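User: Hey, quick favor. My workstation is busy. Could you predict this chain's structure for me?
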Amino acid sequence: MSPRLKYPVVLCHGLFGTHKYGAGPISAGDYFRGILREMRSWDVTVFAPRVHPTAGVYRRVWKLAERIETELGDTPFHLVGHSMGGLDARLLASDPAWADRILSLTTIGTPHLGTSLADMATTRLKYLCTGLEWIGLDVDGIHQVSTRHTIRLTEDWTDPPHSACFSIAGVPDPSTTFFGLRPSHHWIHKREGPNDGLVPMESALGWGEPLPPWPHDHFRQINWMAPRSATAGVIASYRNLVERLADIEPSHLKRVYVGQSLSLMAGQ
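Assistant: No problem, here it is.
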């Protein structure tokens, strides 16, 4: 049976996200590889707005809000953010003008407490980042997912008062982790314990109501670098999430429209 989700889902991409990966007419897929197609086959209205791939959250969220407004008007929706996209989603939801339209907010592999891998990258690659900034590339997003910046960045953000808020961590078996992430997975594990190859579990669960972890590394959470045998498991994880979101719509949210305004009251 198809999930009974009535309202749209907005998928927020992380760092280095783009509309599609490839060159010219050749495309290897979009950020959420094959996931939008599957969700639409379940009669879910879903879209993934593109924002700046490396900028900081405030610049990214300005574009995110603009594109949601263009696509959905004043329709309520569910937010699902992967990696830094979860921070984008949290910032959008902290705005009172948007909070009442957001039915739920789910983050997947999001570094709510930052990640020591970003600390190392911004330290050892300091001159590379400086060079990129010198030629005009905005790389604030790379700095903002470091442990030194993320907590300070988010300390004043408020949670949406009427939204269900969930977090999901990736905890893959090392033997099934994409080989390109195995060194970082091992490096983070020695310092911070279970992780998805880029984000520690503790950081991914540092905000919202924790849901059962996914057995997918950071790339496979969006169906990249996954063998054909693993794709079904990734899609099943998204299907389970959609079913959870469908269950909260009738039982926890009452929607009252007054003209073009919307108010949400929990528990009605």
